[in-house]
């Protein structure tokens, strides 16, 4: 008897699941053991802040943004491979994880600070003085992008202290599978 959840009931089901499996394994960058998807959280707030002067209707989205840690992000994620992302994160060296988390903390502080400045301006001026808001948003976006670029390099290339580090991370990922 075939169970109702079996792929045998659906011709080609295993083939249809293959892209999902591929996407899940591709979520974690083997050079670092980190998933680039997490940085979308910061790309989103930078984009919202930078577009705010031209699109004031984004103000509620800016004010609704909240920092989310890497583990919380993937615990709540629906992405295929979220479990692998969490396992790989747990396997990171303490030093490398601290380096990454320091950049995340810096991005969180910058985003929260920019949002607080935008909120203060909005309360005091509303839609008046759009040039002041534009300058504030431009500076905040530029500063955040600098740190986000460093975080992206860390995720894409891994620790910079050893050429063997990327292979070590890849080996750990293969063992975790």
Rg calc: 20 Å
Note the run of SSEs as H and E: HHHHHHHH
> Considering DSSP H and I runs of 4 or more, what fraction of the residues is helical?
55-70%
Count of DSSP helices? 8
Biggest sheet details: none
Give the total of domains. Answer: 1
Number of strands: 0
Low-confidence stretches: 1-18
Summarize the structure in words:
There is one protein chain. With 177 residues, the protein is mostly helical. The chain has one domain. Helix content is 68%, strand content 0%. Helix 2 (40-51) runs antiparallel to helix 7 (130-157). The longest helix is centred in the middle third of the chain and has 32 residues, at 94-125. The protein is elongated and about 50 Å long. Residues 1-18 have low confidence and may be disordered.
Question: What's the short version?
Answer:
The chain has helices spanning 13-26, 40-51, 59-64, 70-76, 82-90, 94-125, 130-157, 165-176. The protein is an all-alpha fold and 177 residues long.
Notable features of this structure?
177 residues
Outline the fold blueprint.
Layout: H1 13-26, H2 40-51, H3 59-64, H4 70-76, H5 82-90, H6 94-125, H7 130-157, H8 165-176
Helix pairs in contact: 2-6, 2-7, 4-5, 6-7
């Amino acid at each position: 008897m075939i169970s109702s959840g079996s792929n045998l009931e659906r011709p080609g089901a295993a083939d249809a699941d293959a892209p999902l499996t591929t996407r899940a394994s591709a979520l974690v960058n083997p050079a670092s053991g980190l998933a680039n998807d997490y940085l979308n959280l910061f790309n989103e707030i930078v984009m919202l802040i930078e577009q705010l002067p031209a699109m004031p209707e984004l103000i509620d989205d800016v004010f609704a943004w909240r920092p989310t840690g890497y583990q919380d992000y993937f615990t709540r994620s629906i992405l295929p491979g979220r479990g692998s992302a969490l396992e790989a994160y747990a396997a990171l060296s303490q030093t490398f994880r601290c380096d990454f988390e320091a950049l995340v903390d810096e991005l969180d502080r910058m985003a929260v600070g920019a949002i607080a400045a935008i909120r203060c301006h909005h309360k005091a001026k509303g839609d008046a003085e759009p040039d002041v808001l534009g300058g504030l948003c431009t500076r905040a976006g530029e500063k955040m992008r600098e740190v986000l670029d460093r975080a992206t390099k860390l995720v894409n290339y891994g620790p910079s202290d050893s050429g063997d580090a990327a292979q070590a991370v890849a080996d750990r990922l293969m063992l975790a599978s």
